[in-house]
Amino acid sequence: MRILLISCNTSRTPYPVYPLGISMIAHAARRRGHVARTLDVLLDGEPGIRSAVKTFRPEIIGLSLRNIDGDEDMEPKSRLHGYKELIRCLREEISCPIVLGGSAYSLFPEAILRETRADFGIVGEGERLFCDLADRLAGGLRPAARIHYNRRSLISDLPAPARDARILGYYAAAAGIANIQTKRGCPLDCAYCDYPFLEGRHYRFRPPGEVAEELGMLRDKHGLRRFAFADAVFNDTEGRYWGIVEEIIRRKIKISWTAFFKPRAFTAREVGALKASGLRSAEWGTDCSTDQTLSRMGKDFTWKEVLACNRLFTAAGIDSLHRIILGGPGEDRKTLSKGVRNILGLKNCAVSTCAGVRIFPGTRIHELALKAGAVGADDELLEPRRYFSPLVSPAAVTAAHRLVAAALPSAGPGRSPFSRARGT
């Protein structure tokens, strides 16, 4: 079949991110014998997409929906309208089946399929399920089930994405940074997080040598020197990430990189090795600002460990950015006040706070919101809703958030030059 895959992400904050997901689906489809072409909404826009549909005449279209909300701080807007508009444009050009996938779709499958009036949906990893659906459609069989759930077919061999050179060129020019995935899955138990649902609760690793080869290829062939590891957490609990660090050093791959880190007991020697491999910026999943709120959010580290990590990494010349949620489970007026003091006590780093926790279906935050009556059982959560601890008023949390934001210039060097880049 002729398959057209479109990345629908329009976010440019903090910079546009290459769509790894559609590259992986395209690679899997080609291995099944299909002809796959990839487009990107940011690069191609509506005119380019309409033109490609007219010339390529796809027999199936796959849309990757990465985000459900926009980038606004206090009042994020749903992106559903934009997805609906894109599908409307596609319907004007062609009548082939439209299949939805991606992280945003997987969190709200029934609601988004109903709202957009697409034909099918893939929940979770799509390399196998999308290709299975394409095979059946190619054989003239239209499945009765519209939503296909990936509950037991998580792939264990994670291939390097066959990146589209045209799309990669656009992102290389626009951002100058490439995102790379070294593993999938996350066994951590953060109350707000949807990663275990999207990728599973067990790690699946790519071989360190393969990751290093991809880094070298992107550097030598495409001139990229800056990279962001797009894993949920780079420093996995098994310590397998050290294989990648060691491989970069052994092969003398001269790059700079960033990743999302969990605070833990690092040694100065370990931080030195990370620095030697090119680590320039660490984005910390600090998430809360007191021991009480850390524990209630499902974190297994303390504020003392946060401070220790910050000291070690900044002393080594590695920029640190801490992302912190105010108003989460267990937050009260005392923890809020203490938390603000703790945040402002962080030295030589950047801090990004938010007020309240975005509620995603199936998370422990969703369960708490249901018990507190903050949302109803019939609330589909397509429009962004936030959970606030019942022990403190949302107004107090918002005021604390704004106080920290106003004080940031005196608390650190500003926003890290790198920031989290997820393109799956």
Distance between the termini: 24 Å
Would you tell me the structural class of the helices and strands? alpha/beta
Q: List how many beta strands DSSP finds.
A: 16
Biggest β-sheet: strands ordered side by side in the sheet: 2-1-3-4-5-6
What's the story with the biggest beta sheet? 6 strands, parallel
Name of the top-level CATH class of the largest domain: Alpha Beta
CATH architecture descriptor of the largest domain: Alpha-Beta Barrel
Q: Count the helices. How many?
A: 16
Rough outline: globular
In CATH, the topology of the largest domain is named TIM Barrel
Mean pLDDT: 92
Protein model, in words:
- By secondary structure, the protein is of the alpha/beta class.
- The chain has two domains: 2-149, Rossmann fold (3-Layer(aba) Sandwich), CATH 3.40.50; 176-411, Alpha-Beta Barrel (TIM Barrel), CATH 3.20.20.
- It has helices at 20-31, 41-56, 80-93, 103-107, 109-116, 129-138, 165-175, 195-199, 208-222, 241-251, 268-276, 291-296, 303-315, 333-344, 364-372, 394-411, and strands at residues 2-7, 35-40, 60-64, 98-101, 120-123, 147-149, 177-180, 183-184, 204-205, 226-229, 256-261, 279-287, 319-326, 350-355, 357-358, 386-387.
- α14 links the parallel β13 and β14 (350-355).
